[in-house]
């Protein structure tokens, strides 16, 4: 419920604050006094788009603040869904800055307009004679039936099943699309994978192959070069080793004469030893090298295959080709494994779908059981409201199409007069009839669920006499279990209020301003007397007002 409403610098309002209480609060005032301004400020607080033209002084900030007591409404889950901080005493503030920028806060935390608009229906429900679209909404009509049927727990169960069904369906769609896309590439990826696997990359050393290829490809030239070098080392008289040994003999004769000569001999001796080792190795290598056309052709074939694969995959090493092979193998295996995943999810989907349909079927049966009672209550409530011949017909049809509230399709038919055929409510009911139907529906709902604060904006326009008395009685009855605010011109309705607020405007310093005043008992008598007989209050009007209040 709303505990207080503060409005500053909005339209004709400079700065007002009004405290609100439980029960039925009546708001009255002359036409043009500013009742619609108060309602406009409340709508702004509940998420209506801001308009700088509605600000009284455009150089100052406009602030509208509402305090709400919501401990009894079980809104913790709603706050969590909207990512808002829950407080049993929640404060909503809306600001319009001189720049035209609008800001909103819930419990001093900045929120978006979307968040505010999503929260608002759980706090305040505003109705006027010309705004009764909710009552023709299939979703709202189903909500009324479910309230009477006591379907809250079963609906939660169904919605959990539906969410699970949607999640599985979404996963299936993704996998099927993935399979469709990957199947287009499967053949090509498989071809590339087989080509790489046939290459036996793990057993290939590209550097060794290239080294061997160069050796075999130039075997004759290498043999000739090695033979020539060895000849220069070993040929008698002129060979390098023979000549070096002769030089060593010469140095050996004088090495004892000087340390220098001895070092020369040592160095030459080392060279001779190294030359002899080189000569031996060259001889051994020369023996291993021989032309092998078959091996050369085989290595050439492997290298050409490697070069081709590296060029195709734009890499330069065998390691990179092996990595590509592993990636392709993973892709191919994933694609081939999608069928198994899809089959598993299809099985899950069918199970969840069956469970959800069973729950929806139970909802359908409970709704069918509740419809006769709802029909009776609505027609009984409308009888004294000037619609004695009002009749409803609920056409509830089950299907296999999932909706957020089950699989039922509902059409509400209505007729207000005997002898006239039933027709869709939104087409056959007049504005006045629609407002009374809305009142009747809300009155029935109030018996079965905790409703937010309801604001009726002149919903009683166009009625009088006993119908007005009955409307007032219904509002009074509803207010026993909820907070109800009624903006009215009818003294019969005004007299039923637990609290009475008068909206008026005055001129001071050549400025017109709207004000709110909570009326005491004597002021209420005068206000209702004026509603009965005009500004010039007679004794009869006073007496009549007192009688209404009593």
UniProtKB/TrEMBL annotation:
Transmembrane segments: none annotated. GO terms for cellular component: bacterial nucleoid. Residues 2-507 form the RecF/RecN/SMC N-terminal domain. Keywords: ATP-binding, DNA damage, DNA repair, Nucleotide-binding. GO terms for molecular function: ATP binding. It holds the Pfam family SMC_N. GO terms for biological process: DNA recombination; DNA repair; SOS response. It comes from the Bacteria. NCBIfam families: recN. Belongs to the RecN family. May be involved in recombinational repair of damaged DNA. This is DNA repair protein RecN. It comes from Aequorivita flava.
